[in-house]
Amino acid sequence: MVKFQSLKPLIFFHLLVNVLIVFFITGASYFHIPLEGFKDTAVYMMHLVALQITVAGFVYVLSLIPWVFRIVFPLLFVIYACFSFWAYTQDVSITPSLLQAIFETKTDIAVDLITIPYVLFILAVVAVLFFLLKYYNRLEPKKNLKLWIVPAILCIGLFFFLEDKRRGSLKNRLPYNLVYGINAYFEMPKLQLNHEVEYSNTTTDSLKVILVLGETVRADHLGLNGYARNTTPKLSARENLISFPKLYTAYTYTGASVPQLLTDRNLSDMERPLTTLFTVANTAGYKTSWIGNQTLEKSYSPVVETNQQVMLVDEYKSEFSFAKELDGVMIAPADSLLKTTSKQLITLHMIGSHWWYENRYTEEFRKFSPVIDSKYVPSLEPEELINSYDNTIVYLDWFLDELISVLEEDPAPTLLIYVADHGEHLGENGKWLHAQAGEEAKNPAYLIWYSEAYGNQFPDLIKGLKDSSNKSLTTDTFFYTALNLLDIDFKL
Prior knowledge:
Helix 2 (37-63) packs across helix 7. It is elongated, with a radius of gyration of 27 Å. The longest helix has 27 residues, at 37-63. A hairpin with a 5-residue loop joins strand 9 and strand 10 (432-433). The protein has two domains: 2-186, no CATH class; 199-491, Alkaline Phosphatase, subunit A. The protein is α/β, with parallel strands linked by helices. It has helices at 2-24, 37-63, 66-90, 96-104, 107-111, 116-136, 145-165, 176-186, 233-236, 254-262, 277-283, 301-304, 331-338, 382-408, 452-457, 459-468, 478-485, and strands spanning 199-201, 207-214, 241-243, 247-248, 287-292, 309-312, 343-349, 414-420, 425-426, 432-433, 446-450, 473-474, 489-491.
């Protein structure tokens, strides 16, 4: 009895630690599982207990060296809690794709996701850690080491045993999915570019093309594609405009989707060096320019830098998203560039419909209300989120119409190509935003406008586009379609 009494503080400490880990970390992986009846609940409770037993083994071994525990455990606890918050609130899974979106995203985008509930959650985590460490400092962690080390090793071994029996049963849940996800992320192949084109030529000596890379725009929220709301009144009234409502992508985050759109990458051949759209256009005699309202990510900056000219607007405000310029700021420099030479490919990279929606348009485009008034998604009504999102599409409609008006003023053949990098979840299956699994984010908007001069010069090409406008397409085809639209005969 005396011996048990002396062990009680250590036993209580480890029970408390594991209960808090379940509450702040591992429980997030089970919170959104739809359970029906006693059997479902019992099975998943046993699964959670088994997972936590394996975690307990690792925590016990870590606790044996006081200075290591005091440094490493709080750091890991905070990091895991940062991820578990999103797993709790939005049912986000920790995957290599999500980690790429996190590691390679810009500061101005990341700041938009820091909300008051998020800060309060992390403050609660810090407070819990403070009291845990105070309790730990009163213990003798190595007391009765021989008694506890064998069960701890068996607990750790349970992880590998269960994974061997059913691969992914534990490693796809917190905390293990973060470790495996980071490992998979760093094993992802780095972007390699081919800067040599075997042959590239065009017969036209005058053609001006504006390629607009949209952000987070779903095809099914464009009025011209049959959406119940008239989100595209200006574009719907345009002649010579072709929309492709059935374009699909495998990627739901910018870091992967942009390199695929702008190179000859395809899903069946990911390892070879890639050739960019701009490398081919440069070889064919086009002046290539990039105007971006997003700062560059390392995943696609090498692609962008194959343009002859790169201009980032609002560069010094990029870390403060609430002061971020609207996409309309890119119209004037694009207009100026169009006047400099007769063969041009100008790419505009929009901030588009990226969260936080209310910062992507002005009051005059607030066609649908009520709108969102908080950056904490779970506190908002679905109607508010969709209204704000649709208002960004109304702004996009104006933006593209203004660019078309600029192109119409030029007597040369002109063309506008618009394609979004991916779509957005708008409440389907409880999911919001993007960079997570779900078909809703895989159907980006895609449309082409051509001038009368362009239509007269390339009638067969226009007929082919119209004939394929209602066919199912993948973003694998975009690179080749864009070069055909530029009238470039090429061999890679």
